[in-house]
Amino acid sequence: xxxxxxxxxxxxxxxxxxxxxxxxxxxxxxxxxxxxxxxxxxxxxxxxxxxxxxxxxxxxxxxxxxxxxxxxxxxxxxxxxxxxxxxxxxxxxxxxxxxxxxxxxxxxxxxxxxxxxxxxxxxxxxxxxxxxxxxxxxxxxxxxxxxxxxxx
Length: 152
Hints:
The chain has one domain (20-151): 3-Layer(aba) Sandwich (Protein Transport Mog1p, Chain A). The chain has 3 helices and 10 strands. It has helices at 2-17, 76-86, 135-148, and strands spanning 21-26, 31-36, 40-45, 51-56, 62-69, 90-96, 100-107, 110-119, 122-131, 150-151. The strands form 2 sheets. A 7-stranded antiparallel β-sheet has the order 3-4-5-9-8-7-6, with helices on both faces. A 3-stranded antiparallel β-sheet has the order 1-2-10. The model is unreliable at 1-15 (pLDDT under 50).
């Protein structure tokens, strides 16, 4: 019995520490990101090919990645302000860089993580929402996805 428990604990630790990653590439807006395919299921690209949604296997977390034309001619800072205005939770963190911004928040026990780039006349974003109770798992995943997000 003790051997079985040790094997089970080691197996779960390896799974939690080493997710299997796949890459989503958006041909229309020229961006890509890696996502843990053992955690998220792709729901298929949208009809206009602007992005894709992914849902965690337990249905609790959602990852959305998309591009959008900057039809209003907004600066990155203006888009950040609009994103903050449209987010009806509590903003817990924001960072504005030269080419991108990051926005994090909390609403009804769910954490929100957004990263948006402006390249040319296109905003390229990913948004991840997940339960606060699963922060230990998904916060690290969100950071890893953010680091893998490539735009051109």
